[in-house]
Amino acid sequence: MVRYQYPFPIEWYDASDPFGNTSPPWRSPENPHRGADFNGGASGTAGTPVPAIAGGVVVYSDWYDGLGNVVTIHHPDGAFSGYCHLTDRSVSVGQEIARGVIVGTVGGTRTATQHYAPHLHLTMGSDSAGTRGGAARFDPIPYIAARLDASEGGTAAPERYAVLSADGRLWVKEPNPYANWVIQASNVTSFSLSGHRIGVVSGGTAYVKEGDLYAGWVQVSGAGGIKDIVLDGLRIGILGSDGVLNVKEGNLSTAWVQQSGGVKKADLAGNRIGIIGTNAVVSVKEGDLSAAWVGQGVADDISLSGNRIGKIVGGVAMVKEGDLWAGWTTMTGGTGALAIRLDGIRVGVNTTGGLLVKEGGLSAGWTNQANGVEQFSLSGDKIGILKGGLSIVKKGTLFDGWINQMPNTTRIEVAN
Questions:
Q1: pLDDT, tens digit, 9 for 90 and up, residues 45-97
Q2: Domains 10-151 and 160-415 share a fold
Q3: Which helix (H) or strand (E) is 141 found in, with range?
Q4: Residues near 211 by Cβ (< 8 Å), separated by ≥ 6?
Q5: Does CATH number 2.70.70.10 belong to domain 10-151?
Q6: pLDDT tens for residues 122-145?
Q7: Can you name the residues that pair with 413 across neighbouring β-strands?
Q8: Which backbone phi and psi does 233 adopt, to 5 degrees?
């Protein structure tokens, strides 16, 4: 996995104006925030050096009207990072640089006649244009957090592998596929992993632990009545057997906020929440927990990651990239698509003809990973599959080999 660093201490990040923010007076649904701003401490001072968040090759170093001086780097994992409003640029197109190399200095450049207060506008995309406001953009903060090098500040999210055995026990291992399994809970009917958190539904009650694999469980729901749990970052979602979705954000003791009734499936990604209703209608909201829902048509399955939304409609896989009003791109022909999962710049679709995964832009080519897959999971450079009850993973490129994990299992998840 490519390891990243924040360009500045995370405390300097302006959390009041996150990626995707549409709040007036500066933002709107037609003009959402397309990056992450660092304006605290020295990151708000013109002339402060700006380091590359990961190694790669410089593919853009020029003036871009509206963003001023911009540098874009293509990283080995396929992602692109952009550094905008710079006072000056210190790297050239074609130059190969390491993580931490200075690409320019903080500024407020915008147009020839307009300037912002000094700050770094950090962008990321699955293509170069995405770093300059194009549709293929995504939120830099969770992407970096999941790939953070602990030696560069902060605590790296652990690389975890989890399986549910046929007897209802949840097993988790870290930090690699060769580690020993640690049993986490029994009588488990649903589970989810995100960063240092693990969530389970056991006996109809939701529990979450945070920290290492030996941390204690915290009950986060009332007794009984919960059928599913999903975690992402600091958000926790629980879906009741009555179809009511509640989400909380922050520490484990914060209050729940009811999101919707009549929910069949839910997914969380960054500041987005997506649901499929019992009527098959898909809705997604972006922003805080009180944001309004935006209809996304109908679907049999959904998945969210960054600024991408994926769905299966009548056996056809479709993905949109950008804001909630962007158009859909058909990913598979025919009607054989069964399930879709998105993570970062990867798209996975399980079909009647095999598990297909692509990496990069939506027009990238597919690779057939395996046939006869019953369920699968994507996270970073890892893929987990369930085949004939055997849990199997691969780590690295799409062409690396598979590593057997545990027989007699009913579900697998990979996370970091």
A1: 999 989 999 999 999 999 999 899 999 999 988 889 999 999 999 999 999 88
A2: no
A3: helix 140-145
A4: 196
A5: yes
A6: 999 888 888 888 878 888 988 888
A7: 162
A8: 60, -125
